[in-house]
Amino acid sequence: MVTVTSQGPDLQATRIVILGGGPGGYEAALVARRLGAEVTVVERQGLGGSAVLTDVVPSKTLIAAAEWMTSTERAAGLGIRFGVPAADARPGEAGDLVAPGISVDLAAVNQRVMALAAAQSADIRARLDREGVVTVLGEGRLDGPRRVVVRPRGGEADVVLEADAVLVSVGATPRELPGSPADGERILTWTQLYGLQALPEKLIVVGSGVTGAEFAGAYNALGVDVTLVSSRDRVLPGEDADAAELLEGVFRSRGMTVLSRSRAAGAERTADGVAVSLADGRVVEGSHVLVAVGAIPATRGIGLEEAGVTLAPSGHVVVDKVSRTTARGVYAAGDCTGVLPLASVAAMQGRIAMQHVLGDAVRPIRVPDVAANIFTSPEIATVGKSEAALQAAGSKYVTTTLPLSRNPRAKMLGMRDGFVKLFAHPEAAVVLGGVVVSPRASELIFPITLAVSHRLTVDDVAEAFTVYPSLSGSIAEVARMLHHPVD
């Protein structure tokens, strides 16, 4: 992230125009209204943006459906049987079933996915309406630093919006393989999966980052034959090495094919499916291919550079820690900035931008405080400094790991795969970061987030009460393992 130098708020604004109604945009709008500004949000899809309509909400809803399948896998270890004769059936009733056989109706799953996304978008629109935010549906672009021109969705004449400050929160779009445009039928981006009416016979997932791993795991759990194509040595190359290694082992144990060090060069339709060409000459065939190779910021062609906004070579908007761009009165938030591609970060950037431009107290965003989660099974949650970052910086640290299999609550629930890991300073004992690999790790990471944000020590964490038995008990136990007796 490049720091933009200037002092204090750009101006005391009363008219705010926000380009993009995703988390960065609508959260900013709510803060600006609370601080007394007149606010207009320009959104091309619908309130919530791609995060609600085609990305975060739909994908996590699909993954929630897939979780039921992995839950039944654990249930078998607890003595629960699905689709088999009951052990205690009376004579003549040996054919009775403990539970009916399980199948997946993907059309019904996707219908629910999109209905929830639409409902969430409607809820956001209703909230903004109640708060007095004006919403304009259409394509917006800057015409100077504090002037926005909107082409309404219905084709009416352009609308010109004058502003004291503008927030750009236009998000990003899926990157495609060169020469292999997505067609929404066989070659798919993650925004197009929800049109499928039946499970793919064989799904090829290109890209082993967060998005690729999440969808590969979800479709594998739904019973699909999945091949994951990874250009790196392992899945999730940017994540904790122990967590990524564990997840890849889980993937393989569930029958997924993982092709490491295999770069995809292109994809093409065949008579009844797709063929993915690898850089080494191999060809992988399947019924469908999901391309999950990153995203491109949606910043081109909307007048940013002409308005004095500097873009990085990647196309991301250059911002400082309070979301200012290089153009006075223009702020930016979300995936278009490249800070961290998380809805929570977009929302925080948007809130900080409005607090700054409207003269409220501001705490600049601190990336190490950001908790992130990968919604695989098991989930991987992280916060603070990673082990790789600590090693790269030559920082002093101590670490310990506790397998989930040692937790009594995990044993009761049939959970085997996972661990809790903490990093701390060897002398000061301050918690520097942590990793949780577990079902619902997204819920368990919060106490570690508090520890990192407030610079708590391992003893602070260890001395807090936890429920027995509970999964969170492992966090306190790991902290106790890092305790150093007083000399």
From TrEMBL:
Ranges where the Pyridine nucleotide-disulphide oxidoreductase dimerisation domain occurs: 371-477
Cofactor note: Binds 1 FAD per subunit.
This enzyme's EC code(s): 1.8.1.4
Domain FAD/NAD(P)-binding as annotated: residue spans: 15-350
Keyword annotations of the record: FAD, Flavoprotein, NAD, Nucleotide-binding, Oxidoreductase
Residues involved in NAD(+) binding: G207, S208, G209, V210, T211, G212, A213, E214, G294
Lineage per the UniProt record: Bacteria, Bacillati, Actinomycetota, Actinomycetes, Micrococcales
Protein name as catalogued: Dihydrolipoyl dehydrogenase
Top EC category: oxidoreductase
Gene3D superfamilies per the UniProt record, alphabetical: 3.30.390.30, FAD/NAD(P)-binding domain
Origin superkingdom: Bacteria
Gene: pdhD
Species this chain originates from: Luteimicrobium xylanilyticum
Cofactor: FAD
InterPro entries associated with the record: FAD/NAD-bd_sf, FAD/NAD-binding_dom, FAD/NAD-linked_Rdtase_dimer_sf, Pyr_nuc-diS_OxRdtase, Pyr_nucl-diS_OxRdtase_dimer
Residues the entry annotates as binding FAD: K60, G140, D335
Family: Belongs to the class-I pyridine nucleotide-disulfide oxidoreductase family.
An MF annotation (GO) of this entry: flavin adenine dinucleotide binding
